Amino acid sequence: MVSLEEAKKAVGEALNCGRLALLIGRCRVFYEGRAASKLSEGDRLLVIKQDGTFLVHQATKMHAINYQGPGSRISVRIDEGENALVVSSQRTKPLLERIDVKFFEVHFADSFHLRDDEKLKLFGSERELSELLMQDLHLIEPGLFPLKQESDIRKGTIDILAEDFRHRLVVIEVKRREAGLDAVTQLARYVDEVSKRKDKATRGIMCAPTITPNALRMLEREGLEYFRLDYEIGNPSARIRGLEKKQKALHEFNDSKEPNT
Question: Using CB atoms within 10 A of its CB, is residue 76 exposed (0-12), middle (13-18) or buried (19+)?
């Protein structure tokens, strides 16, 4: 067991020296921002990275139950009234968000200096797959013409924005792993925003190696489409099966016959 004072000192040193801080203990977690939530008392792992990333993990699953990204302002104090160590993370943009982790017992607290000079080279990233698809969108559908890759909109970044032979806009979302409900929700948001901003008929296509049954049903309900992305990872690059030629020029689309529908 680590005293609250010792834990406070460990976190304070990490914040002052730009080190990684780890705390394990019995705590409650409070969040205020886009909504409000309270995580009941339990044993949790708190990770504070030197760039301000703030992560609260439970004993199972890979994702943090509460988190804030780089740039968070972090503070630590002891609440004498509740005899608890309070570690707080706050962000002010795009809106005020705050996470308070209130430790009543601390089992472990320490800080570490990490050196990481190696850059990860990811083969088959979603960006690389998008770049490959941009070479020939005919693989997805005859008549598709690429307009822009990584198009920023208010609700995120569209992987590929294209136009079909009927001059409808097509939002293409690329996933390197199985697409779930969150991916379909993301695509639906993008299609809705593009349709309203451009005042033009807009379709949405999900490109992924697989899709969950629930996600496929939701996709169909939303009037969106699915294309199975068949690719293999190699070194130094990925390869999409069936993708062999370069994208046609615009005049080639105009000169060709419209595909049957």
Answer: buried
Answer yes or no: is pLDDT of 118 > 70.
no
- By residue range, what is the domain housing residue 174? 126-255
d(CA 103, CA 83): 9
| Residue in the structure block whose two tokens are 């639906």 | 188
Q: How confident is the model at residue 249 (pLDDT cuts 50, 70, 90)?
A: very low
pTM for this entry = 0.51
CB contact set of 12 (below 8 Å; sequence gap of 6+): 76
Check whether residue 251 and residue 135 sit in a common domain: yes
220 contact partners, CB below 8 Å, separation of at least 6: none
Q: What is the dihedral of CA 132, 253, 251, 241, to 10 degrees?
A: 20
Q: If you count them, how many residues does the chain have? A: 261
Confidence class for position 35, pLDDT limits 50, 70, 90: confident
Using alpha carbons, list the distances in angstroms from residue 6 to 80, 85, 222.
Answer: 15, 10, 54
Q: How crowded is the C-beta side of 141, counted as CA atoms within 13 Å?
A: 24
Residue 161: which CATH number? Answer: 3.40.1350.10
Tell me phi and psi for residue 187, to 5 degrees.
-60, -45
Task: Decide if 261 is inside a domain.
Answer: no
Is residue 121 in some structural domain?
Answer: no
